[in-house]
Amino acid sequence: MAVGHRVCFVAGFLFILLLPGCEARIHKLTLTNEIRHTIDLNDFGFYANGTLDVHLHSLQVPETQVDFSKYPVGFSLSRSRDNGVLSYTAEDLKKCLLTQNSTNAEPLIHFLINIKNQSVSVNAVNKQDNILIAKEKVEADKDQEKVKRDSEQQSKNQDKSAEHQDKRSDDKKPEQAVQNPEAVNVTGTFNLSSRHHVTLDLEKNGSIYSFSFRIRFGSEAEGLYSLKFHYCRNSDPGFNEPYSFAVEVTEKNPHGFLSAAEIPLPRLYLYMAGVFFIAALVWVYNLMKHSYSVFKIHWLMAALAFTKSMSLVFHSINYYFINTEGHPIEGWAIMYYITHLLKGALLFITLALIGTGWAFVKYILSDKEKKIFMIVIPLQVLANVAYIIIESTEEGSSEYYVWKEILFLVDLICCGAILFPVVWSIRHLQEASSTDGKAAMNLEKLKLFRHYYVMIVCYIYFTRIIAILLKFTMPFQWQWCYEFLVEVSTLIFFVLTGYKFRPASNNPYLQLPQDEDDVENDEVVTESGALEGISKVKKTSNGRDRQKESTL
Q: Where are the transmembrane segments (predicted)?
C-alpha cells in the first residue's frame, strides 16, 4: 500500500505540472523541425453559424530546396460522411491530400501557400455553404493605369508651354509603376458556394510567413470537420525535410466552444453523478441494515461509488467552463483529474479484491495474487497519467499519439489482469467441490464466480470495443451517446456487482465453513495447493466472521 501511495503522489505531481499546457478548444500548437507530411490539427463538429478561426503566426520552410508547385504546402478542411467516418481512407492518408482530387461529394477546402508569389490559393471543392472571411490579395490593373496616362497625354498637348514638363513626369511614372507594382489587400467576405477560388495575402517578415482566415458554416454545411496541415514533400519515401510553424486554431459553435457531440455532456455527467450518488446512498443504507455481515470490501465498494459520483461532478464543471471560456479553469480541472485517478485505481483494486475472495473467504492474499496488485496498481496510475497528458496536449503534437497508444495498451493489460484472480478462484472452487463434503455450497460459489467473470468480460468488451464501434457509426451530433452508453453500462455493472455480493445471510458467497469437518476439508484442499492463502474462519455470536488461524 505504501508503494501505491508513492505512485499516486508522483502521478498527482506530474499532472499538476502538465495542466497549464491545456488549451481545450482554443488550440495553440508550435512545432520545430517537424518532418511529418500530414499533421492532424483537430476534429470538430460544427452547427449552423459555427466559426473556425485559423491564425498561422509563423511558417519556416526550406525555400531553395523544394518545388512548391509540385509539392504544395498548406491546410485542408474536410467534412466527414454522415455516419461520422472521415472522408478519406487509410490509402488516401498515405498520400498528400493537397495533390489529390476529391473522391466523394463532401465539402473540401484547400489552402495552398505560394511562397514565390506571397499568396494563398483557396480552392473550394464540391457543394459549399460556407463563408470565408480573410484578407484578399488583388493586383493593380495595369491596363487602367495605361488609359489614365494616355488621357493625361492628350490634355498636355493643349498647352505647349507645359508639354515638356508633362512628358518628363510621364516618363517617370511608368518607371515607378514597373519598379513598384502596387497591390491592394482588403479583408473581404466570400461566399464559397458561388466563388470557389480566392487568392489571399501571405505576409512575409524575413523568412517567416503568416496569414489568417475565418470560416462561417451554413445550415447545409453542418458536420464533423477535420483540419490538417500538409507538407507534401515529405510524403515521398526517403524525404524528411524539417520545417517549423506556429498556429492558433479557435473553434466555436453558436452557444459555446464545445463540439456538437460534446454540447450535451455537461448535463449528462451531472445527471449521472446524481444517479451514482443515490446508488451509493442506497448501498450504504444496505450496509448499515445488514451490519452483521459487512466486510471491509463492502465499504471499499461504497467509496468507489462516491468517488465515481464526485468525478462526474467535476467532469461536468470542467466541460461547462470549456464551453463558456474556451479552456478549463485550472482549479476545477485539477479536482477532476484527482478524482478521476482515484476512481480508476479504486475500480480495478475493488474488482481484483472481489475476484480473489479477499475478506469474504480469506484475509490473506497469496503471493501470485499480490503480484497482480503490484502490476495493476502502477499500470492503472500510468493509464491515468497518459489520459491526463492526452487531455493537456494538442492533437497535432507527436507525443499525443504516443500517449494515446500507451493508454489503450495499458488499459487492455489492466482489464486482462483483473480476470486472472477470478479464473484462479473458479479453479479453486472446482477442485474444492470435488474434494470436500460441501459440494453443493461450493457449486453455488462457483456459479456466482462464473457470473462475475461473465459480467467483467461483458463490461470490458462493451465499454472498450462495442461502444467505440457504435460511436463511429453514429451521426456527428449523436456521438455523445457513446459517453451515455459507457456511463449507463458502468452503472449497471456496479449495481449487479453490489447485488451479487451484497451483505446478506442467504448470500452463498458469504457462507463459510463453521464446523470441524470443514476445517479438515480446508486442510486437505490447502495441502493440495488448490486454495493457497485461504485462512480458517469461525462464526462469532453476532454473525460476523473472524480469522482464527492460517492454513498456510
A: 268-287, 299-322, 334-360, 372-390, 402-424, 452-472, 484-501
The 10s digit of each residue's pLDDT in 114-142 is 888 889 999 998 889 999 999 988 765 44
Q: Is there a contact between 243 and 62 (Cβ–Cβ < 8 Å)? A: yes
Distance CA 74, CA 114 (A): 9
Between these two residues, 4 and 506, which has the higher pLDDT value?
506
How far is C-alpha 98 from the chain's CA centre?
A: 27
- Which residue in the block uniquely carries the three cell numbers 473550394? 124
pLDDT of residue 91: 47
| Domain boundaries along the sequence of the chain | 30-138+187-252, 264-501
Fold of 264-501: Rhopdopsin 7-helix transmembrane proteins (1.20.1070)
Beta carbons within 10 angstroms of residue 290's beta carbon: 16
Of 27, 214, 196, 218, residue with least CA distance to 108: 196
| Dist. CA 303–CA 347, nearest whole Å | 10
Q: Enumerate the β-bridge partners of residue 339.
A: none
Predicted confidence (pLDDT) per residue in 177-212, tens digit:
334 444 456 788 999 988 889 999 999 998 899 999
Strand partners, 60: 244
Residue with cell 465515481: 308
Burial class (CB in 10 A: 0-12, 13-18, 19+), 479: buried
Q: Which residues of 17-39 are buried (b: 16+ CB within 10 A; e: fewer)?
A: ebbeebbbbbbebebeebebbbb
Q: Report the percentage of the chain scoring pLDDT > 90.
A: 32
Spatial separation of the C-alpha atoms in residues 102 and 98, rounded to whole Å:
10
**Pairwise CA distance, residues 266 & 258, whole Å:** 10
Cell of 2: 505504501
CB 337 within 8 A of CB 379: no
Provide the residue type at 425 as one letter.
S
**Helix/strand/coil for 6:** helix
DSSP letters, 38-102, are EEEEEEEEE-TT-EEEEEEEEEE--TTT--TTTS-EEEEEEEPPTTS--SS-HHHHTS-GGGS--
Nearest of 29, 76, 30, 25 to residue 46 by alpha carbon: 25
Per-residue model confidence as pLDDT tens digits over 383-407: 878 888 887 778 888 788 888 888 8
Inter-residue contact 470 to 480 (CB < 8 Å) = no
Letter for the amino acid at 446? L
* pLDDT band per the 50, 70, 90 thresholds, residue 249: very high
Side-chain-side CA neighbours of 190 within 13 Å: the count stands at 23
* pTM of the entire predicted model: 0.76
Q: 296-325 vs 330-356: helix axis angle to the nearest 10? A: 150
